[in-house]
Here is the input.
Amino acid sequence: MIQPAHENTCYSPEVRSLVWVSGRVTRVRFEDVTEQYQVHENHQIDMTMVENVSDEFLFGPHDVSTEHDVDGSEELDMMFSEPVEQTQASTMSKEQKRIQEALWNIEHLRPKSIKSLAERLRKHYGGEMSIQLKCPTGMYPTTDSGHSYDYVEYEGVLQFLANGLLDASFIHWCQMFLYNHMRSKKENAKGKTRVAYFNTQYITGKECEKNLASVKEHLVEVYKLHKDKKYFLAPFFYGGHWVLFIVSPSDRKGWILDSVSIRAEKNKNHYPLTKAIETTFGSQFTWKMAKCMQQDGSWECGYLVIRNMFNFVLQKQYDFPKKIWNDTRDVTEAEIDELVKNIMTRFFREVFNDTTKK
Here is the structure.
């Protein structure tokens, strides 16, 4: 699922990436996504490959170089060594153009460690535009066949490497990973996980505005399935911007982590998801805007949603809300790069059974 562009967004497609043109730095303009993707492969999540995750998962060093071509530059250079003929460029689909733009940006603007990840990704996708994954058993109601499988788009993962606007399919993969990981741990010193997940692709701002009944149905069905859980995480996309909701229906409380909330002076009324939640679980909800890390540019929101989601599930959930976010500084690109490398290490391992270290 690809998100449409909206007004009032923190994300501006026209200033998405820097490009060197005619002796100066300019920007690559990205077009809105409209077409559907074709899928061919079916990958089953391998539960045996989910490993213990600690603080190092989010911030620690990982060796992500390739086995022979350390930075992947040789093969990436080959991708761009020959100019594209004008006739060929004119027949490329919008998706193909975005993929080429993302690859160009990775090659010219991203560090060597990220370039090597892009080359590994290209080999695994093997020319396919997406791969099919089976959703974890028990994550969603079994009566909903639409939840049985999901797709992770090649372009969506490339954007994660290229500092782009993140795709819902990749953020949903992060939700599935966390669900599997915490299920494999079963219980720690503080007990079982207290977290369940609303599918980010079912609760977008567009869905809330145009198909509220369907959104509410999803909220109710997931809540019924996981009544034993205290918190429900809802990555929410609206107006070209990603936000994380933490919802406690039993306590009628919700927390909103928005990486532009301070500059934009936002409150609950800025998000149509609050209406969907209140009309589903009761209007007497108390909402709190969390003092979370902010973004300095126009593209970091999705990365901060992933960071906050992992941080909550792996570290904060058992002492929440006693331990809550209190860091409103701007995230750095170095912090995002470290997050990207750590997440991609797990993505390769779980989706492709790729444990390459060198």
Q: What stands out?
A: The longest strand covers residues 231-238.
